[in-house]
Protein 1
Amino acid sequence: MTRVAPPLTERTAPFWTSGADGLLRILRCDGCGHYQHPPQPVCPACHCASLSWQPVSGRGSVWSWTVNRYQWIPSMPPPYVVAEIELAEQPGLRLLTNLVDADPASLRVGTEVTVCFAKAGDAFVPLFRPLADDDQG
Ligand SMILES: [Zn+2]
């Protein structure tokens, strides 16, 4: 599967290129510590404009998902899982992404997942896969 490279803008490039070193980074408020995604110019919690990209654990859980069965993009043959993942760092901090290495029949709300990355152009697209037994710790 060849992914379409996302456009890298001044605001989003740190998110899309973060995976180059294997870490997921999320924009965090320097004032109150609130994480936000997608990235915005001010903190939605305290309106502070001092924000920085901080590495997160890459762990989360399935908040919702669906199985796409339509071929929207020639290089992405269906079926594949589109999921909203809630990151472990903060309730409500969610990413829309794809789940890989996942049997849709075994997915549940709350299934624990971990990040992995797929190179697409200059981007490292964050994807998630169900946590395996050897991912503990
Ligand atoms: Zn804040």
Protein 2
Amino acid sequence: MRFQHVLVVGAGQMGGGIAQVVAASGRQVSLHDEVPGAAERSVSAMERSLAKLAEKGGPDPAGVLVRVTPVDGLVPADLMIEAVVEDARVKKAIFQAADGILPAEAILASNTSSIPITTLAAATGRPDRVIGMHFFNPVPVLKLVEVIRALQTSDETTTAIVELAGDLGKIAAEARDFPGFVSNRILMPFVNEAAYALMEGVAEPEAIDTIAKLGFAHPMGPLALADLIGLDTCVSIMEVLHEGLGDPKYAPCPLLRQYVAAGRLGRKTGRGFYEYT
Ligand SMILES: NC(=O)c1ccc[n+]([C@@H]2O[C@H](COP(=O)([O-])OP(=O)(O)OC[C@H]3O[C@@H](n4cnc5c(N)ncnc54)[C@H](O)[C@@H]3O)[C@@H](O)[C@H]2O)c1
């Protein structure tokens, strides 16, 4: 099996989900977060997720959890999957540090929603072995992995990551390294427009989401989805689209910015467009 040991950096909602599916595929996972205790909390969340999945025929939770080890810093591994906050400076620093710690043949992947993979690759001495591996939320449930090739990514790296996605039970779709790739270039302007509709008093949040759910057959409305993604992440992605594509239509909605300034980040803080208990 390729990639026997995977280092996941960032133990938030995405990093935890990624660690879970990688461990469920039989691989060893080291999970690191800069916040002390975050990786351990993530393992507890995995326990709950795995218990639910086991009721529907998923893997034995204990057998998966035993393969996940919280670690205090970056450690050598065959593959790093980075899933820290959507901030280019933070990600670049992690790629530079990982380049010095992981063996030269290891692949460095980012779960970024929008930050150019080409710049992350350029921060390392192995740009041909840097790639975007963009999972979807919730990771144990959603099947898609958007695989993003940097300008420098080799065919061999791309093939290895597409194969890994298949091995994790996912379906890979390849995209080139343009702002927001494919998924967020389409999704985020939709979320942003829903925030504008709310700000301009066109409809209440429930009505906006009901119209999208029943009218477009979406499983969730855009405001509920933004709460799931995290409003801070949504603003960061819109900023990347705005800066990268240079069109004012991508400017983040002021209401989204205001909610972020108030600490209403969505589900992860208990309040966004909706309240969560
Ligand atoms: N939320 C989504 O629906 C979603 C979907 C696909 C991709 N993503 C991407 O995944 C990444 C993580 O998003 P998330 O929703 O899990 O965010 P999150 O806020 O839940 O978690 C981010 C984690 O990164 C940690 N962190 C920050 N700086 C760090 C550092 N220097 N070293 C180690 N850990 C650090 C934080 O402590 C936090 O635990 C982002 O790039 C985001 O764009 C998010």
